[in-house]
Specification:
- It contains 7 helices and 3 strands; from the N terminus they run ααβαββαααα.
- By secondary structure, it is of the alpha+beta class.
Length: 127
C-alpha cells in the first residue's frame, strides 16, 4: 500500500484496516499527507502511527508525517519532532476534535485513545 493509499484509507475512516496493516508490515515506515489538519493527525494517531508536523508545500504551511515507530522521526532526514503535549492541549480545546460521524456516547473512549497514545507518554517525551 502506498503512502497516498494509506492516507486515503485513514481519511476514509478505515482505521481498523490501517491498524492491521501497521501491525503486520514492519517495512511500512512512513506516510506523508499534504495537510496539517488535526482530523488527519488524530486519525493517524488512532491507527497507531506516531505523528509529526512536516515541512510546508505550496499553499500549505505545514504537512503531516506519520511513522510506524516513535524512532521513525529520529531516523528521518529532517528529524521532525513528534506532536507533543502542547499539541494535545490545543486538541483538547478544539471545537472540532471529534469526527462528525462519532456518536456522543463514543466520545469518552475516543478521547481516551488519543490521550493514552504512547506518543504522549512521559517516558517517550523524556527520550
Amino acid at each position: 500500500m502506498s503512502s497516498a493509499e494509506l492516507i486515503a484509507a485513514v481519511k476514509g475512516g478505515d482505521v481498523e484496516s490501517v491498524r492491521a496493516l501497521v501491525a503486520s508490515d514492519p517495512s511500512l515506515a512512513e506516510a506523508t499527507d499534504e495537510q496539517g489538519m488535526p482530523a488527519v493527525r488524530v486519525a493517524l494517531l488512532l491507527a497507531g502511527f506516531f505523528v509529526t508536523p512536516g515541512a510546508g508545500t505550496g499553499p500549505k504551511s505545514e504537512t503531516t508525517i506519520a511513522f510506524t515507530t516513535a524512532r521513525g522521526s529520529a531516523n528521518h532526514p529532517l528529524a521532525p519532532r513528534l506532536l507533543d503535549q502542547s499539541w494535545l492541549r490545543r486538541w483538547r480545546r478544539s471545537g472540532a476534535k471529534f469526527p462528525a460521524h462519532l456518536a456522543i456516547g463514543e466520545r469518552p473512549n475516543f478521547e481516551k485513545l488519543i490521550e493514552t497514545h504512547p506518543q504522549f507518554s512521559t517516558a517517550l517525551v523524556m527520550e
